[in-house]
Design brief:
Isoleucyl-tRNA Synthetase, Domain 1; OB fold (Dihydrolipoamide Acetyltransferase, E2P); five-stranded antiparallel beta sheet; 9 strands; protein biosynthesis; tRNA-binding; tRNAsynth_Ia_anticodon-bd
């Protein structure tokens, strides 16, 4: 709890939010809301733009390895570097003596703002949508946001920017954090909404370019489904083929590393050790679990 206001006020407000607002506000007030077209990029400009690709790879690898904080830290670091670049180049001074250079600096910053919006999608979807709307006027994010990183926005008219984050105090924190740490009790009717079934693993393989993700093809009664699960460091794919496991069958599908997962296997975890839930007797796949 002590670290929560520091993360919000320091990382989100002062680093991420501050860089986004400084950049867009300057473009809106000094360039009539139009992202400028750059002239020649300096080595510093190119170095900062190149960091976008590096952070993208860090975000992907952190999600792949379930080390989500590492990816978010990389994003915050990119925003800090953007703030340093903006302060160092001081476009508010350049507009008076070197307009072309000022345009280039603001173009680079706008590219960084766009990258921060797109790369934040897995962590801060609300922030991503808000900034994307400011940049493009579109209310929804691209279906494949990381593929938009290489596009440029010169000539694009932005909306009037507003701060995307607000500082919080202790009083606000108390309203945000839960009073109880125990899980909320559910009713029998809530539990009955879950379609938990026995499934048989037909195929299992590692997902390319992923350290922890396995792709399982399972049979659940008359259905054949694909499941993506982060258990590659716990189980060899071949050891799972033919096994009867327990799955949540009516979970909303989600996509991981380009593979659609249509159910979720259930497992117990103890200090990093994972054990899949299975059945003690031979029972038909598709059988309900109560």
């Amino acid at each position: 709890m002590r670290r929560f206001p520091k993360r919000v006020n320091g990382d989100l407000v002062d680093s991420l939010g501050n860089f986004v607002h400084r950049t867009l506000h300057f473009i809106y007030t000094k360039f009539n809301g139009e992202i400028p077209t750059p002239s020649n990029l300096s080595d510093d400009d190119k170095a900062l733009i190149n960091q976008i690709e590096q952070v993208k790879e860090k975000v992907i690898s952190s999600i792949d390895s379930f080390e989500y904080r590492a990816g978010l830290d990389a994003l915050i670091s990119l925003a800090r570097n953007g703030n340093k670049y903006l302060t160092k180049n001081a476009p508010w001074e350049l507009v008076q003596k070197d307009l072309e250079r000022a345009k280039t600096v603001l173009f680079v910053c706008a590219q960084l703002v766009k990258a921060l919006a797109l790369l934040s999608t897995p962590y801060l979807p609300g922030f991503s949508r808000s900034v994307w709307q400011l940049l493009t006027g579109q209310t929804s994010l691209p279906q494949r946001p990381f593929e938009e990183l290489k596009t440029t926005l010169e000539g694009t008219k932005i909306l009037e920017p507003k701060p995307v984050f607000q500082k919080i105090d202790d009083k606000t924190i108390k309203t945000l954090l839960p009073v109880e740490t125990q899980k909320t009790q559910v009713t029998l009717q809530d539990f009955q909404k879950l379609d938990i079934r026995v499934a048989q693993v037909l195929e299992a393989s590692k997902i390319p370019n992923s350290k922890k993700l396995l792709k399982l093809t399972v049979k659940i009664g008359n259905e054949i489904k694909t499941i993506v699960s982060g258990i590659a460091d716990q189980y060899e794919p071949q050891s799972l083929i033919g096994k009867k496991i327990v799955v949540l069958n009516n979970l909303q599908p989600a996509e991981f590393m380009g593979v659609k997962s249509e159910a979720m296997l259930l497992a117990a975890e103890d200090n990093g050790s994972v054990s899949l839930l299975t059945v003690m007797r031979d029972i038909a796949d598709g059988s309900p679990v109560h």
